Amino acid sequence: MKPDEESARGVAQVEGYLLWNAEVEQARRRARRFTDALPWLTTAQRDDVERVYVADRVELCRETLTRIAGRAVELRGEYTARYERLRIRCVAMSVLTVGTVGGMCAALTLIGR
Fold first, then answer.
1. Could you tell me if residue 108 is inside a domain?
2. What would the pLDDT profile of 67-107 be if each residue is shown by its tens digit?
3. Structural domain contains residue 99
4. Residue 72 lies in a domain
5. pTM
6. In whole angstroms, how large is the CA radius of gyration of the chain?
7. Looking at the predicted structure, is the pLDDT value of residue 5 above 90?
8. Which of 49, 54, 61, 106 would you label with 89, given CA atoms 20 to 30 Å apart?
9. pLDDT tens digit string along 55-69?
10. Is residue 30 part of a domain?
11. Is residue 37 classed as helix, strand or coil in its secondary structure?
């Protein structure tokens, strides 16, 4: 792996780590806000509700990210295939155009003699 690719991969991993930790922290804040609305809970109950809430939220985020990542891979494949077809068409049109112009020049040269 090239150093630039290695650096980009490392930056992506750090970014992913930071984004995931931010998501977990947001789940914790939401869990605290949720339990704050239930003042009759004991401390142990509050801790249990927050733990379950955070675990549920984290699992939901994990499922969502997995689904998004899978779709991104699908889209990359679709767009790569489209790009290849478009590139082939462009090259074919360029060859056809060059051939047509070359043929016309040859015909005009022959006619002009």
1. no
2. 999 999 999 999 999 999 999 999 999 999 999 999 999 99
3. no
4. yes
5. 0.66
6. 30
7. no
8. 106
9. 999 999 999 999 999
10. yes
11. coil
Give the domain extent around 67.
Answer: 3-84
Domain total of the chain:
1
Query: Cα torsion for 21, 26, 32, 38, to the nearest 10°?
Result: -140
What distances in angstroms separate CA 69 from CA 49, 56, 92, one per listed residue?
30, 20, 35
Residues 6+ apart with CB under 8 A from 49: 31, 34, 35, 38, 41
DSSP designation for 2: -
Closest CA to 23 of 56, 49, 69: 56
In the block, tokens 């790009």 appear at 83
Give residue-wise pLDDT tens across range 6-44: 888 899 899 999 999 999 999 999 999 999 999 999 999
Task: Specify whether the CB–CB gap between 50 and 31 falls below 8 A.
Answer: yes
Q: Which residue has the tokens 């675990």?
A: 55
